[in-house]
Design brief:
The chain is α+β, with helices and mostly antiparallel strands. It is built from 11 helices and 32 strands. The protein folds into 4 domains: 145 residues, Sandwich (Jelly Rolls); 104 residues, Sandwich (Jelly Rolls), CATH 2.60.120; 144 residues, GOLD domain (Jelly Rolls), CATH 2.60.120; 196 residues, Rhopdopsin 7-helix transmembrane proteins.
């Protein structure tokens, strides 16, 4: 046999601490057909700085769809069936880099996914630029070894083969036809080259993760051994590996035979139903309705007789694509499906486009109680991938040859049932329904079950406390929920740490009403004739109030305009307020001060548009304004030959308290805020900044008098006052 090795690589990604599924970095690979060996090369590395510590990286694997993970131990939705993912841990301790290999023999062909992430996030809100996080990088490469001329085992035809040695197993494949109800594999005439009794092991099927249902068969001696499989995967190649368990130098000759039991489906008149569907949508011509009803009446006896002789009844289903990872399935015969005890009713749910595995498959059943006359009757259902379950009446087991399905049931006592499959694997999915009775009393009974099936990006749109986000890895799209207000879980249904409505209202009130502390600063600015500064503070107070009213995660939310606009205006007002306050303290000439006001505001607006959360967008203007202020104070002090400001009362009662409040505010903002305490630490930031502004504003100019409203509004004669300075000659 000719083996060909292939190599697939993807660029490295920077890992993140886990708080929701969007923090997990996804890698998407495609394993070709006839692959006999798959090897993952996993490379993890970290930075060399002092902030880098030992870290454990968790890597998840899954075939067919992204892995369903739960690192935080939260609850899933009530009707979701979750199977744990296969994962390994990679530890970065003293070594800067770690290389790990993962081998998979006879892997299933198709899509394979890898998700990697760091441990749970600490929840601390870090200001961009204040601290340098350690970079943890992860890269996954894939090596495959495949056969270019894998022998094909034809059904019903015995095929002799030779296993050369235990180190070189034999690989063959057989194609499973559609409607195959069972498969029987038989191995006979097992003889070694030394004419001794041989021992071989046969592995049927491919390995899939997280769960693998590969079937094993050990044959000893020349006697025939066989293995029967129920519901093998339809229209797929099934790999068979035969390996010798004997001596190293002896070859083994075997004869293999594969046979299938094919199930004949009953007639469903899908073509006539499709024609009637088009006529009902487009509007039938006169006389068309009478002509279309005649074949349906003639079909009824044939359908009844075909139902007795067939092993399944297939219902036609139309797949309707609505949006990205959004599909609705419509039954051509209507939402109600007839279910009997003679043979299962089958519905095909097509999810094999390669872009459907990033959502949630929802199947809902509703039993019409009046359609079943027996009180003890139960409608058993099974949702399975690759092949349907055709033996619900015998064992009531929801398993196929190489997979485990998802069982459902409805009865007169429990008429509703729902199933949520998170990230369904890329394949053809089947819904099997059959009527079951305790003692076989419903041979002629028929039940009506209403079926609703659809694919949605996020179940229930993540609820009121979550946001459904569409994520992308190269050309692959998948969806995940980002929860808020303390809610958690896959669909934001876990209320273990959820905030109460009272807590949410308190957070909104604190973050909004704390901005009213700017009112004293505005009053001081107006009293001292700093009208431009007062206007800036009013602008900041207004937009900060309504930005935080719109930024709340819970139900206490009010947005007066677009969220992004409110956020930008809030950030702009905060930085400009600091800018104008420090320049006002510098005591510059009016024309120069107002020029710097306008020029600085324009530059701040530009920098915030480039990077809104960068620390230098705030620190840069602050440092430059402080430089101007210190220069101006040194100039004033040198000119007066005295320390500026000269009054000790100004330093003790105004400047030092204002500077202290400003430093405390910066410390709270940069180092103390977390996701849990944000609503009161950020409110403290608002109060401290507003109070520091009121302390730091300089007194009014000496030649300006306080506001005298009685003099401003009078209509009588006024005595003009001469403000000219007297010049004295010093001799």
């Amino acid at each position: 046999s000719l083996y060909v090795s292939e190599y697939f690589s993807q660029s490295a990604q920077k890992l993140s601490f886990y708080s929701w599924y969007g923090n997990a970095k996804l890698f998407h690979f495609h394993v070709p057909e006839d692959t006999v060996l798959l090897r993952w090369l996993l490379q993890a590395s970290r930075g060399k700085g002092p902030e880098c510590t030992s870290m454990e990286i968790t890597v998840h694997f899954r075939h067919g769809a992204p892995p369903v993970i739960n690192p935080l131990g939260t609850r899933f939705p009530a009707n979701a069936t979750v199977r744990p993912s296969y994962n390994i841990s990679i530890t970065l301790s003293s070594a800067v880099q770690n290389t790990t290999f993962v081998n998979v023999t006879t892997p299933a062909a198709g899509d394979w996914f890898i998700a990697a992430h760091l441990p749970e996030a600490a929840g601390r809100i870090e200001v961009k630029g204040f601290s340098t996080p350690c970079p943890y990088m992860f890269q996954a490469d894939m090596f495959v070894l495949r056969l270019t001329d894998m022998p094909v085992l034809e059904p019903g035809v015995p095929m002799p083969h030779t296993v050369v040695s235990p180190a070189k197993p034999l690989h063959v494949k057989v194609f499973v036809p559609k409607h195959a109800a069972g498969m029987r594999f038989q191995l006979s005439s097992c003889v070694t080259s030394e004419q001794r009794a041989c021992t071989v092991r046969v592995l049927l099927g491919s390995i899939t993760l997280p769960q693998s249902f590969q079937r094993s068969l050990t044959c000893t001696g020349s006697i025939n051994c066989s293995l029967a499989l129920e519901s093998p995967p339809w229209e797929k190649w099934l790999q068979i590996m035969v390996e010798s368990l004997g001596t190293a130098n002896a070859s083994v000759s075997v004869e293999m035979l594969a046979s299938f039991t094919v199930c004949r489906p009953g007639s469903t008149s899908s073509f006539l139903n499709f024609i009637s569907l088009n006529q009902s949508q487009a509007g039938a011509r006169p006389g068309a309705a009478a002509g279309s009803s005649a074949p349906a009446a003639g079909e009824a006896p044939r359908n009844a007789s075909g139902r007795r002789s067939s092993c399944l009844q297939s219902q036609p289903v139309v797949r309707e694509d609505l949006d990205v990872v959004s599909v609705r399935y419509r039954l051509l015969n209507g939402p109600s499906v007839p279910v009997t005890s003679l043979s299962p009713t089958l519905l095909l749910l097509n999810l094999n486009t390669g872009m459907d595995s990033g959502g949630s498959l929802v199947v809902s059943l509703l039993l019409n109680k009046t359609s079943v006359s027996l009180a003890n009757a139960t409608v058993a259902a099974c949702v399975s991938a690759a092949s349907p379950v055709l033996s619900l009446n015998a064992t009531q087991n929801c398993s196929t040859a190489f997979s485990q399905g998802y069982p459902l049931s409805v009865s007169a006592s429990s008429a509703e049932a729902m199933l949520i499959v998170l990230y369904p694997q890329t394949d053809d999915w089947f819904l099997s329904l059959q009527l079951l009775c305790p003692k076989g009393e419903c041979a002629s009974a028929e039940g009506k079950v209403t079926v609703f099936a659809y694919l949605t990006p996020c179940f229930n749109d993540c609820g009121p406390y979550g946001q459904c986000s569409l994520l992308r890895r190269h050309g692959y799209l998948y969806a995940a929920c980002s929860c808020k207000a303390g809610w958690g879980g896959w669909s934001c249904t876990d209320d273990t740490k959820a905030q109460s409505v009272g807590t949410q209202n308190l957070a909104t009130l604190l973050l909004t009403l704390s901005n009213l502390m700017f009112l004293p600063a505005i009053a001081v600015a107006v009293y001292r004739f700093y009208l431009v500064e007062a206007s800036v503070y009013t602008y900041t107070m207004f937009f900060s109030t309504f930005y935080h009213a719109c930024d709340q995660p819970g139900v206490a939310v009010m947005c007066i305009m677009d969220y992004d606009t409110l956020q930008y205006c809030d950030f702009l007002g905060s930085v400009v307020s600091i800018w104008v306050t420090i320049l006002c303290m510098a005591r510059l000439k009016k024309i120069l001060k107002y020029v710097l006001f306008v020029l600085g505001t324009l530059l701040i607006a530009m920098s915030l548009q480039l990077d809104r959360r960068g620390v230098w967008n705030m620190m840069g203007p602050c440092l430059f304004a402080l430089l101007i202020m210190v220069t101006a104070w040194v100039h004033h002090g040198a000119k007066r030959r005295h320390c500026y400001p000269s009054s000790w009362k100004r330093w003790v009662f105004y400047l030092l308290p204002g500077i202290t409040l400003a430093f405390i505010a910066i410390s709270v903002y940069a180092f103390m805020e977390t996701n849990e305490n944000y609503y009161y630490t950020h409110s403290i930031w608002h109060v401290l900044v507003a109070c520091s502004v009121a302390f730091l504003l300089p007194p009014r100019d000496k030649h300006k008098k306080p506001w005298a409203w009685s003099q401003k509004l009078t209509c009588r004669y006024q005595i003009c006052q001469n403000d000219r300075e007297e010049l004295y000659a010093v001799t």
